[in-house]
Amino acid sequence: MTDNEQGTPAPVGGPVAEPFWRAAREGRLAIQRCDCCQALRWPPLAGCPECRSRDTTWTDVEPSGTIWSFVVYHRAFQAELRAEIPYTVAMVELNDGPYIVGRLIPGNKPPSVGDRVVAEFVEIDRVPSVRWRVA
Amino acid sequence: MAIQRNPVSGQVAIVGLGHTAQGELPGRSAEENAVDAALLALADSGIEPAELDGLVACKSIQGQGNDVSVGRLLGLNLPYAQSLDYGTCNFSLHLAVMAVAAGMASTVLLTYGANARSGKFDFGQPAYGADMASAAGLVHIAGRAGLALQRHKYLYGTTDRQFGMLAVGQRQWAQRNPNAIFRKPLTMDDYLAEPYLVEPLRRPDVTMISDGGVALVVTTPERARDLPNKPVYVSGIAEHAGVRGEHNPENLMRPWLRDSAKAIWASTGLGPCDIDVLYIQDPTAVWSLQMLEYYGFCGIGEGGPFLAEGHTRPGGDLPLNTHGGQLSESYTWGWMHLVEAVRQLRGQADERQLDSPEVALYCSSHGFVKAAASILSTDPGVGT
User: Fold this and answer.
1) Residue A124 in this model has a pLDDT that exceeds 90
2) Parallel/antiparallel/unpaired status of strands B359-366 and B277-280
3) Residue A3: pLDDT over 70
4) What domains lie within chain A, and their CATH numbers?
5) Mean pLDDT across chain B, nearest whole number?
6) Would you give the distance in Å from CA B324 to the centre of its chain?
7) Closest-approach residue (CA) in chain A for B140
8) The domain B13-121+210-224: what is its CATH number?
């Protein structure tokens, strides 16, 4: 963890990802959009893999998508995950196109590929986090 | 001069192989394991260390065992030495073939050593540091592989019972292999009774972690003629780098494996029906499912029913990972796959020996970014 300019803990991803966490803290889902070719990209990257432009604007996207796939962890591969198993991680295909990995909030029934999901913005120990809930 | 479709065919022969015991080798570094294997491979080949003019070292997952550290222990100065971060033996073999083809070396030693087990390497930590995915809890290779399998199940109706044929089949092969670490019988009922590790993957679908060293010696066909072992020729090599990585659409399905497959078939003029025995590097069984399809042994999405028909098990018409692979034999990042391919082609595979196989394919990958394939044959004319 490093400190961002607000002096609060910034999660992973390095400087290139900081705008994502700032937006998440404000309840927005933001990803990079290339100023040159308008392609949206995720995960954060210093340049556009479509046209190689470095000119980028962080853009709010619709915080919803569908489950492309998901897995359920029954073993904690890191000590800090031990209290969370079993937990579910989904690859979400955003309505706006890109794919994003996220934790799925347990629902009333097991998730399925193709389920519609919406983002929820939470803070855990002052660290912002995006979680997904089946709509 | 006509452009040769496949300039490497028959130009390099594998003439030596060696490996340490596979399992737990406490107190030994990755370099020591690599060098122990290298000395065995040289002895097997009939080549003296001083005759080597090339070294391609594959680093362990902890970054140990590069050409400098291995070369020092072997006491070698060489015209050509190089290290790879990730070998699977395929990428290493390709570099050696290129060094020979370019005239930079003629007799090359390939090395790999691992001590990830006794060294207690933490496979739960992200390989390139914490990232956005690991922050969500997507850690360990079983996570991403499990996502790919779940998608495959959704798209094609692949069942646990079909997919489990990989783990069950490889255990059957391993029971015929005294080097294999996991030899206890694993029936389909046993498999299905195993709890999920990262659903939809069970423990038997994921590689074990073991220590060990593996080495090979390659040389020219001219030199090979004077050596004791039956030469095994490199008939073709191909790679494809999907290094856009996560910025490829649906990269977890590793679509660029198909490009490596197209290249190996196009350059050699061979096809799936020409392959007598198949090796697929398998940190998870998902790799085998994907590569069976992309390399054309069955159609895309047909891997489940194909496996259920038993083709890849002992007695089947497409023997797969006849040593037990990473699921049952040992870890070694796929290096033992190439050792086993050479043993089968030499006719030295003892109780698991197939009936005179002549052509083997070895497919491997570097995680979610690179694909590689090699075709080996007892006949130097194959693939021209």
Assistant:
1) no
2) parallel
3) no
4) 2-134 (2.40.50.840)
5) 95
6) 12
7) A77
8) 3.40.47.10
